[in-house]
Design goal:
Elements: H1 3-29, H2 36-43, H3 47-53, H4 57-81, H5 89-104, H6 107-118, H7 127-155, H8 162-182, H9 189-202
Helix pairs in contact: 1-2, 1-4, 1-6, 4-5, 4-6, 4-7, 5-9, 6-8, 7-8
Length: about 220
Amino acid sequence: MNKVNKKKEQGLATKQDIMAAAEEVFFERGAAATTVEQIAARANVTRGAIYWYFKNKNELLVQIIDKAVIPLLDSFRTKLHEDTAEASIEHLHQSSTETLLTIVRSSDYKRRLAITLLKCEYTEEFQYLIDKHMLYHDEAREILVTYLKKIEARTSVLFKTPEVIAEAFLFYIMGMLTQFFKEPDKVNIERHVTDYLDIFFLSLINHRVPIEGRTPL
């Protein structure tokens, strides 16, 4: 290996070490309380080394959030496109189940998403994080709306619009994951994921069963 390639490889390893250290400190202390000095100490590098690879602490945090969300969105979109039959609630259920299991079975995903959902203070100071969350929310919503419209066009079984269902599903999943990260010993997603998703997806079918005191939809 020549000197240029060796230096490049060492630089990549240092950057990865900094990212790993930052994940640990953000997870332990939260975004606001974490300092560049703490990350440097954990990574066993100088502050200057961090600033060589990252503009500031905020850029580090954004890259960690990107590593948490982008692969999951890409994987979920791919799973839906892999459907060899017609679009269906069953396939959406299966793809959602697989994505949730990927999260809860991966220590990396759990740590990064816990940082994203629990360890960031969404105040004016961190407006860039709010903007990032909205961007990803909109992307996830669009993936769901597109697929739900295919289901609606084929079966007409949905009793609410794809847009409303997509928003409700994101509320449902984000609430489930947030509670899981808060109390992982009490919320067993891996064991009960099918039941949790059954409750949501079975409610989408237009069975027109009246709710007590209400006119059937």
